[in-house]
Amino acid sequence: MHNRELIHNYLKSLGKYLSRLDKADADDVIREIESHIHDALEIQEQQDCTDGVTTILEGFGQPRELAGQYVEHILQGTPPPTGFKAIQSVKKGVTFSLYVSMGLFGFGITAFLVLVGFYKILVPNGVGVWSVTQGNSIIITFSEHTYPNSTELLGLWLIPLAIGFGVAIGRLTWKVLAILKEKR
Amino acid sequence: MKKSDDTNDKWDVQLRKGSLELVILAALKERKLYGLELLKFLHGFETMVITEGTLYPLMDRLKRDNLISASWVQEGEFRPRKYYQLTDNGEKKLSTLTSRWRKSVEDIEFLLNNPGPSLIHKKGS
After folding, report:
1. Fewer CB near the last or first residue (10 Å), C or N of chain A?
2. How many Cβ pairs closer than 8 A exist between chain A and B?
């Protein structure tokens, strides 16, 4: 009866400290140790040895320390399994396509805005930002005719603003690309 | 005398720490053993006495590293026991560790057999 209690308490305590493991893994560990303890007790009985369950439990050490060794790898992070290289190269591919599309997107906007700016210098009435009346939309348009029912917003201010924003976005894109390149 | 015994113990502990993986894999070569059986088997050797608390977590790690596999076996009226055996990976690892171990012993033997004062170089290395 006394043995039973000692074993029960030990395993219960061990289970508590193994809680970081999957339930199935923790149960497996406990089941194996329980099996060991009972087997070892039987051997003691056969050999008329009176060491008792305490000696066996001492061999396992404190539940917390024993559990610590089982849980260690989870806390430290397991080494990547074989085949992980494939995942890494896929990840690298994603980063590469991200890099290219980021570049196309950023520099595309820059090119567009700078183009609008210069176009406004050459043909002041050919391009403009228009606000459609009764609507919430703003339209940038290349047109010889003014957009119906709308007012031009910026006029010649469009030139420095478009070029300025264009250059700013270009520089920002450049910086982001530099960071992406480092990460690759 | 006591001091020298302590030093011997420390040396044993250090040596065992480094060689335990090889010892376990070697013990399981062409054998299928459960924990207690393996422990008692090792206790039969003077330099391989380890505790339950060392053995079981190590078995767990070797299993995670896919060097050994484990399966529960119910034999007749006995309670189920978890048997361990080498995997193909384990066999390979064992042969690698074995050749490193033998090389190491060979080198140490050479040093012991060739005291100074002159420096003698081992052939083939």
Report:
1. N
2. 50
